[in-house]
Structure formats: structure tokens, C-alpha cells
């Protein structure tokens, strides 16, 4: 049975990871459009990635999506409505438009209106796209979700349908992020204080005594790296989480603090400081934050 033709609007980390995984399954053709493609310098890395993976670069968004069976929107959270609008002229009623960006349920529903020429599916990516790439677990929702599941499974995706509301998958991801991203922010705050107080080892020992099922050293290493690498993107996601909570009548009192810590950590630009890759080393990350005077103080 043949694979569906795919297209990506946005070819950053998520788009590249998914496209590369699909190509390893023999999925073709795959096309892509990114607003940076025409930029001589800014788009160099993205164009090289497209050529390496074997992805056709569209002249614009409509050109990239024409002829695709499934279109994935993989842009920054703030750009999801703009991306849907750019792709719309090239969409048809037979295509699936998969909104996989980390945005609130309401923004998923708004994108459905903009991209209404296609069969709209809300998707939530439930784990980092590396190392699993296209096999990263995802949830899908919307009236067309049940129809797209076998197509995505044929491409090797780990996919589960969770309802007919296009915002249902996003609601699960957004509410989950309260805990996942909140734990990261709380971990950073705890270990920044422990580092400054000179009691880091004792804090780890005490936490281990209270919660022996967690390797606290590795837990801190992981969460501090994720914040340092993806702080700005995660801050944008957590703003949508705040909107989601407010729409549910829940005050995002603690989640607002998560936004602040993610934003200020991202603004520290530690990825550049570490030569393009932040190590999973809490000591190095904490020292970098404290040493450059960019500790994300609330």
C-alpha cells in the first residue's frame, strides 16, 4: 500500500525531525515551505536540511502544499494562524491539514477557520521529537481525526485519536504542560538557590530520601538543559497554557511563574554560549546563568 504525499509548512526542528523520519520509512514525495527559505543567510541551514533529507522546497506555501495528501503545520506557536492563511490558497477539501503546533485549543479552533478549505486535524506532540522523530507519540482530534489515523500509522507514526473537537488533543497537551514545564521551572529555581547556598549535594540527598524513585541529579540535568535550549519556545507555549487554564476557569498562578523562568532562561542565549548545544550538566548551566548575571530572577 502506497504512502500519502506529505507537505510541511515550517521546516525547523520539528519539521526536519518528522520529515527525516518519514523518509526513513520510504515516504515520498515530501515538500516543504519555510519563510526563511528565500533568505540568503538565515535560510542556508534549512535549505541544506531539506536537500539532505530529500524534501522538495516549494516556491511559497501554496506551491508546497499543492498535491499533498497531508499538510503539517510546524511553525512557531505565534505563527500558526499566519501559516494557515498562507497555505490556504493551495489547499483543497480532499487534503488533511494537521495543526501540530503547541498552542491552546482555541488557537487550534481559530486555525481551523482560517484553513477551512482542507480537512482540519488538531495534533498534539506528546514528547520531544528527538530521538524518536516520526515515532514520537502524538494525539489527534477533530471530525477528520479518525480518517487520518490509518494514513499516519502507515507512515510509521504512533498516533491516537482522542475526540471530535479539534481542540481536544491540545487541551490534553496544554494541561499536561502545567506539570511537565512547571516541574522544570521549579527544579531550576530550587537548584539555582542550592548552588548559591552551597548546599546542592545535600539538597539532592534530601530529595532522594523523600522521593527515592527519582534520580534527582539526572532529573535536574535534563530539565535545566531543556529550559536552556528551548526556553523561548517553551515560554510561548506556556502563555497558551495560561490562556487554556483561564478558559477553564482555573487561575494560572504558578504557571505564570513558569512563563517567566522559561522566557528569561531563553533570553540568556546559553545555546550560543555553549557553541550550539547545551550539555545535560546542571552545574554548567547553573554557573552560566549565574556567571553572566542573567539568572532568571522573578
Structure characterization notes:
The protein is built from 12 helices and 8 strands. By secondary structure, it is an alpha/beta fold. An 8-stranded mixed sheet has the order 3-2-1-4-5-6-7-8, with helices on both faces. It is globular and about 60 Å long. The N and C termini lie far apart (about 55 Å). The relative contact order is 0.10.
Features:
alpha/beta; single chain; eight-stranded mixed beta sheet
Compact summary:
This protein has 298 residues and is α/β, with parallel strands linked by helices.
Q: What structural class do the secondary elements suggest?
A: alpha/beta
| Global morphology | globular
Helical content (DSSP H or I, runs of 4+): 40-55%
Helix/strand order, N-terminal first: EHEHEHEHEHEEHEHHHHHH
**Beta-strand percentage range:** 5-15%
Strand order of the largest sheet: 3-2-1-4-5-6-7-8
End-to-end CA span: 55 Å
* Number of discrete helical segments: 12
Number of strands: 8
**Average pLDDT, to the nearest integer?**
94
Largest sheet: 8 strands, mixed
What is the topology?
Blueprint: E1 6-9, H1 13-24, E2 30-33, H2 44-53, E3 56-57, H3 61-65, E4 70-73, H4 80-87, E5 96-99, H5 105-114, E6 119-125, E7 138-141, H6 145-154, E8 159-161, H7 168-197, H8 200-210, H9 216-247, H10 253-267, H11 270-273, H12 282-291
Parallel strand pairs: 1-2, 1-4, 2-3, 4-5, 5-6, 7-8
Antiparallel strand pairs: 6-7
Helix pairs in contact: 4-5, 7-9, 7-10, 7-12, 9-10, 9-12
Amino acid at each position: 500500500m502506497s504512502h500519502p504525499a506529505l507537505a510541511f509548512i515550517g521546516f525547523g526542528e520539528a519539521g526536519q525531525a518528522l520529515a527525516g523520519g518519514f523518509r526513513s520509512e520510504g515516504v515520498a514525495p515530501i515538500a516543504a515551505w519555510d519563510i526563511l527559505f528565500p533568505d540568503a543567510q538565515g535560510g542556508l541551514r534549512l535549505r541544506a536540511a531539506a536537500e539532505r533529507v530529500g524534501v522538495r522546497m516549494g516556491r511559497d506555501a501554496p506551491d508546497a502544499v499543492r498535491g499533498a495528501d497531508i499538510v503539517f503545520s510546524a511553525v512557531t506557536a505565534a505563527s500558526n494562524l499566519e501559516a494557515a492563511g498562507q497555505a490556504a490558497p493551495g489547499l483543497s477539501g480532499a487534503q488533511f491539514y494537521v495543526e501540530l503546533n503547541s498552542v491552546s485549543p482555541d488557537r487550534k479552533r481559530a486555525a481551523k477557520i482560517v484553513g477551512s478549505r482542507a480537512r482540519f486535524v488538531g495534533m498534539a506532540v506528546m514528547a520531544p521529537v528527538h530521538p524518536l522523530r516520526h515515532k514520537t507519540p502524538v494525539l489527534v482530534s477533530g471530525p477528520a481525526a479518525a480518517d487520518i489515523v490509518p494514513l499516519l500509522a502507515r507512515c510509521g507514526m504512533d498516533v491516537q485519536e482522542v475526540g471530535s473537537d479539534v481542540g481536544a488533543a491540545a487541551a490534553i497537551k496544554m494541561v499536561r504542560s502545567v506539570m511537565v514545564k512547571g516541574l522544570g521551572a521549579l527544579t531550576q529555581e530550587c537548584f539555582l538557590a542550592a548552588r548559591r547556598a552551597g548546599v546542592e549535594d545535600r539538597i539532592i540527598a534530601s530529595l532522594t530520601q523523600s522521593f527515592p524513585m527519582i534520580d534527582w541529579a539526572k532529573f535536574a540535568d535534563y530539565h535545566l538543559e531543556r529550559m536552556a535550549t528551548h526556553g523561548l519556545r517553551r515560554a510561548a507555549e506556556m502563555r497558551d497554557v495560561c490562556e487554556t487554564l483561564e478558559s477553564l476557569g482555573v487561575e494560572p498562578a504558578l504557571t505564570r511563574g513558569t512563563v517567566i523562568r522559561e522566557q528569561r532562561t531563553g533570553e540568556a542565549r546559553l545555546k550560543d554560549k555553549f557553541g550550539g548545544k547545551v550539555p545535560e550538566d546542571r552545574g554548567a548551566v547553573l554557573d552560566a546563568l549565574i556567571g553572566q548575571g542573567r539568572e532568571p530572577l522573578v
